[in-house]
Amino acid sequence: VEDRIGETPYKEMRVNILAWELGSALELAVRASGSGFSLPDGSPDDSLPHGRGLMMIQSLASRTWIDDDGRSLHMTFSYQG
Questions:
Q1: Nearest 5°: phi and psi at 24?
Q2: Which residues of 4-13 are buried (b: 16+ CB within 10 A; e: fewer)?
Q3: 4 pLDDT above the threshold of 70
C-alpha cells in the first residue's frame, strides 16, 4: 500500500465508506473514484500477490452487488442480534 499510494492513478483516488444497520444486518457501501471493477467469478489466481479481497467479501457477506458503473461495492452482512 505504501508503495502504490503515491503512484498514479492511486494518489488521486478517493474512497468513501458508508455503514448502517438494517434490522439484523450491517450494510456497507464502498465507493471509489476509479474506473470501476466487477465482482470476480471463479477461483483467484494464486500466482498474483493480490486479487483475493473481493472473493473473501463474497464468501463472508450474505449479499454483494456493484453499482455506479462498477465504482460502488455494496455488501450486506447478516447477524443474529
A1: -105, 40
A2: eeeeeeeeee
A3: yes
* Amino acid at residue number 54: L
Pair 34, 13: CB distance under 8 Å: yes
Q: Residues 29, 66, 41, 5: what is their CA dihedral angle, to the nearest 10 degrees?
A: -60
* Contact status, residue 66 vs residue 75, Cβ threshold 8 Å: no
CA 16, 74, 41, 80: dihedral to nearest 10 degrees?
Answer: 130
- Model confidence pLDDT, tens digit, residues 40-64: 776 767 776 666 788 888 899 999 9
The full DSSP string for 24-56 is TEEEEEEEESSS------S---TTSSS--HHHH
Contact in structure between 56 and 42 (CB atoms under 8 Å):
no
46 residue type, one letter: D
- Length of the chain in terms of residues written: 81
